[in-house]
C-alpha cells in the first residue's frame, strides 16, 4: 500500500504562496521542497547520531541535534 502524506500537497503549496506570493510555482515545486526537507532531516539525524556516538551516548538527545543543526547550517 501507499503511505499517506502527513500534510496534503495543497497545504504545502499554500504555505509557500503565503510566504512568497510573488513566486510562480511549477507543478512539482512543492514536491521538490518536500524532498529537500526530508534530505535535511536525514542529514540532521546522521549528524546527531555521530555527535551522540562521540559523546559515548546510546541515545540521541536534543543537545546532539542542536550541535548537528549548527554544523549543517
UniProtKB/TrEMBL annotation:
Lineage: Eukaryota, Metazoa, Chordata, Craniata, Vertebrata
Classification via Pfam families: CENP-W
Superkingdom of the organism of origin: Eukaryota
Keyword annotations of the record: Centromere, Chromosome, Kinetochore, Nucleus
UniProt GO MF annotations: DNA binding; protein heterodimerization activity
Protein's name according to its UniProt entry: Centromere protein W
Gene name tied to this protein: CENPW
Family the entry assigns: Belongs to the CENP-W/WIP1 family.
InterPro entries to which the protein is assigned, alphabetical: CENP-W, CENP-W/WIP1, Histone-fold
Subcellular localization(s) per the UniProt record: Chromosome, Centromere, Kinetochore; Nucleus
CC per GO annotation: inner kinetochore; nucleoplasm
Single GO biological process annotation from the record: kinetochore assembly
Keyword Nucleus carried by entry: yes
